[in-house]
Amino acid sequence: MSAVADNGATAPRKSVTGTRLWVAVLFLLPALVLLGALVVYPIGYSVWRSLYDAGGDGFVGLDNYVDVFRDDSTLTAVRNTAIWVAVAPAVVTALGLIFAVLTERVRWGTAFKLIVFMPMAISMLAAGIIFRLVYQADPDQGVANAIVTSVHDTFADSSVYPKARPNAQVSDLKASGGGSFTSTGTVEAGTPALLPLVGIAPNRLPGEPEDAKAATGSGVTGTVWLDFKLGGGGEKGQVDAGEKALEGIKVEAVKDGEVVASATTGADGTFTLPAEADGAQLRLPGSNFAAPYNGVDWLGPTLVTPAIIGAYVWMWAGFAMVLIAAGLAGVDRNLLEAARVDGANEWQVFRRITVPMLAPVLIVVLITLMINVMKVFDLVYIIAPQPTQDEANVLALQLFLSSFGGGGNYGLGSAIGIILLLLVVPVMIVNIRRLRKERER
After folding, report:
1. Cα separation, 376 vs 311, whole angstroms
2. DSSP letters of 246-313?
3. What residue stretches are annotated with the ABC transmembrane type-1 domain (predicted)?
4. Residue 15 belongs to some domain of the structure
């Protein structure tokens, strides 16, 4: 039946909701204005600007897009962005799934979820500053290296005299490779060996070292000590009063390249070797002087990108966990119990029932994170130090550097922005199609 008024005129058109069309447009107008000002206009202007040179005066066509794939730093950014898209969303989604499933069975699951989700309340800038401190190379400042060095030192002995060296003027100890020092002469029973070392300030010795003592006895003995004392004085190459002993130095007796005996200096710096050491050369192994283990160079060229991805995972694992936990709450428990009754173990239930039923939620989380990592900027800019920022570069950071970070090339920056948009669009289309299919169900 056609809508006709009493006077024969056609009734005003109405929208799907029954509201007059002009009223609907009036209410939508503010949103449309904002959408145009904040989305449509910037995209259109970026497309136009990408076709001009750095100053915006000369039309260059697609030259800026060609330059994107000629510049080494931009190619590095493309490679790193691909790594981010391939690794970060998958890791975050997997961790979120694991956390959601495991916390469902523990009493303190809510508290754990709160702790894991808390980093989401922190801005990218603040998280970048936090992890810049976490990844500090100095174990006394960086938490990551403090943990690594603690674990390392638990299973490996560390040197306590890393800068010590023989006094070349009075000692016959010579460098023999691998950081070790070997005497040119041999040791004899009844004649104590004197092995003076320098290179360490007496007040920098670890602990509370005792005064050195000259070795005595008829066996193969000797003394390792710091041949220097504050204020000077004494005779070089001789154990003088007030000179400090070097405790814990390993001494090896070597004959024909073979170690026949070894000993460790005591608190007074003296050592005693067995009789078979008579006539052998004395060697101080390099382990006595090796530099202490200072951990991993997290922000070096090799590990800077994985380290920054780790910071991202720390921030976004809570987001994935909460969404997946919400989806898990809607899973039919009867199916899980039926599978267990049929003899399936927990891994089989998880792999064949839980994960397939959570597939729509997992896809939403994965796609959302893929779009998010394409735009990652703050973490890379804050965490990566200047010397390795090129190795950690991503497209969003390269856009900033090309346009505002000293490059001043707004044409190239606009081209990178359009490329980022083109990379995001396919993911958005897939997500929109999936949402439409969900509505049709």
Report:
1. 12
2. -TT-EEEEEETTEEEEEEE--TTSEEEE-GGGTTPEEEE-GGGTPPPP----TTSTTTHHHHHHHHHH
3. 78-431
4. no
| Residues near 73 by beta carbon (within 8 Å), at least 6 away in sequence | 390, 393, 398, 401
323 and 268 part of one domain: no
Residue 355 falls inside a structural domain: yes
- Count of residues for the chain? 441
**Sign (positive/negative) of CA torsion 332, 334, 337, 338?**
negative
Residues 222/251, Cβ–Cβ less than 8 Å: yes
What is the edge-to-edge ordering of all strands in the sheet holding 270-273? 165-166, 193-198, 220-226, 270-273
Strands 165-166 and 173-175: unpaired
Residue tagged 């070349």 (tokens): 168
> For the segment 407-432, what is each residue's pLDDT rounded down to a tens digit?
678 888 888 888 888 888 888 888 78
Boundary-marking domain end, from 254, 288, 322: 288
CA 269 – CA 246 distance, rounded (Å)? 5
**Lowest-pLDDT choice from 40-49, 52-61, 270-279:** 52-61
CATH classification of the domain holding 391: 1.10.3720.10
At which of 257, 288, 319 does a domain end? Answer: 288
Distances (CA, A) of 136 to 249, 293, 297: 31, 14, 8
**CA 101, CA 325: separation in Å to the nearest integer?**
7
Q: What is the DSSP string of 58-116?
A: SB-TTHHHHHHTT-HHHHHHHHHHHHHHHHHHHHHHHHHHHHHHHGGGSTTHHHHHHHH
Query: Total domain count for the chain?
Result: 2
Residue pair 96/321 in contact by the 8 Å Cβ criterion: yes
Question: What is the sign of the dihedral through the CA atoms of 102, 103, 104 and 105?
Answer: positive
- On whether residue 316 sits in a domain, the answer given is yes
Mean pLDDT across the chain: 85
- Global pTM reads 0.74
- Residue 32 in any domain: the answer is no
Q: In whole angstroms, what is the distance from residue 167 CA to residue 226 CA?
A: 9
The pair of structure tokens assigned to 164 is 């010590």
